[in-house]
Amino acid sequence: MSMKFQFYTSREIRKILVSFLETISREHLLAIPEHFNNNIWWNIAHVAVTQQLLIYKLNGLEVNLPDEIIATYAKGSRPVEEPSEEDFNLIKKALIELVDKAEEDYQKGVFKNYNSYTTSANVTLESVEDAITFNNFHEGIHIGSILALRRALGIAS
What we know:
The chain is 63% helix and 3% strand.
């Protein structure tokens, strides 16, 4: 499977996430239904953060999101407060831009020193290619979570 296809897939996933941000009310984006521990917004911000950690941080590179966003939405976090309008707009804009930047950096050969990492799904990532591929799987899981949240909120279409 080519990396071009992986970046294409990532971009298509991100377009779906942007459409959720554009079509679901802020109230529903932030609502946490009974029996859930997060919301649609958290899932979307979390995938943006995770992509940066898997691809950039594990290569020993600077991430392309503010530290406070990373801390707020990294693995193990939970929704704690309503995002500011600035954070909302930052994530919405970054969803596609971060994929474009990762693809550009990949083509430039920026990712040279990948640190092996075993995910919570017990998948060991040995290279940036593994991380990019796994990230698409991870984002698919969160699309499923968002679809379940939409159903629980009664807004599934």
